[in-house]
Amino acid sequence: MSVLTLTAREEVSAPPRVVFGLFGAGAGAGWVFDALCDRVAPGAAVTLRAPLDPDSAPVEILGRIGAVAAGRLIEIVHDQPWRGRTVLRFSAHGTGTQVRLQSELDQQGLEWLLRRRGHVLRNAPCENPALGLLTSKSGPGNLFAAASDNMAALALEGINADGGLRGRPVDLLIGDDATDPATGAREARRLAAAGCRTILVATTSATFVAVSRAMADADVLLVQTLMNEGGLAGGLRIQLGERPADQLAAAAGPMMQAAGGRRWFLAGNDYCWPRGTHTAARDVLPRLGGRLVGERLTPLGTSDFAGIIEAVERSGADLLLSTFVGADAAAFQRQCHNRGLHQRCLTLAPAMDESTLARIGPEATRGLHTVSGYVESLDTEGNSTLLSRYRARFGRWAPPVSTLSESVFEGVQMWFAAAVRAGTDEPHAVARAMHDVRVELPRGTVTLDGNGVVGQRIHVAEAVGTDLRVVTSS
Asked: Which of 72-81, 96-105, 110-119 has the least mean pLDDT?
């Protein structure tokens, strides 16, 4: 596959050893493309903003450090917003330092960048059966989407190796909602026009709602794979994933016991999933003996959470329900740690996943818990097989697998099983075949009843560094 290389330069009025030493100092600090990482060593998670698009904001690249030459070079292996390598070279320039960035750009990356610049690219209709994946390769949700397209590709590679659908390979087409509902609706229409009769939607619920409305007259099956508040299932709409009431019912008791208290503060992003989760909390927590002492919501893309943290401190909360997602969740948790909030109360973050933990850093995850149907450390035979295949295919520095991305793998598997059962990929037939099923997946047994309600085990897990360890299951 041919690869293009994009370049950018940044000059800093300090010698190379100083600039290299301050790499990763933090977004907004002005050092080396606003890079953020806890350490400069192979395997460390890193985020940087590269000026690769002169007519727009910098491109946010998420990856891991693959190689380091002290004082001279840092190689970043990344999957967001495209899969490739970005290399930074440090050299003396007068009395300061020039940092030269070179980023590989494959065909998918080129198409992503052109769409970002506003170019209309129309895919030729697929000759084979096509499955669409709408995810968040950019914007605040890009953390939780880090491995989503990898997981979809892995699932389809296995399916196609076994003969595909009715003897034909299944093509995968990917759209990026940029964590924006309107963009998501446009991308969904593009995927449908290219021949996708089913689209897996692995985005915020706000985007799923917008896509569902925009595609109301389209003969396309929409499957929301990850956790959601429900309410839109029926016909050509299927919502998989965990539900807030089930998550809170599983986690509230163990969390209050661990905290030694019952006072809850609710805080999160201001869109439908956090609001739905807070609504469930106001019902579930008091029934289980909890007491609500405060609530705050803030828009997606917020970077300063001082006011919310101060409100939590004033409330005397023993427990914090955090419904922030993606980059906001990482920034909020780091700021909570800096204020020492983990010494006052425990945090339950239902949407927290391993990719976000890697961006928070091992020290700042103390006191943090999550609750979901899957964690990467889950001890099942199916999960061990999945992780072995994943690392063999995408390498040691690929993003960790989480309930948010693993749900895409399982969504592909459930779609394919339904298409085989129906004998066609026609959307209505596939939708009918996906109901009343019981399937064995890497997370264990998952059921979907005639009303579209998902049944699965739910696990409460504690963050230990950047890993999640199961505490209890129900």
From this structure: 110-119
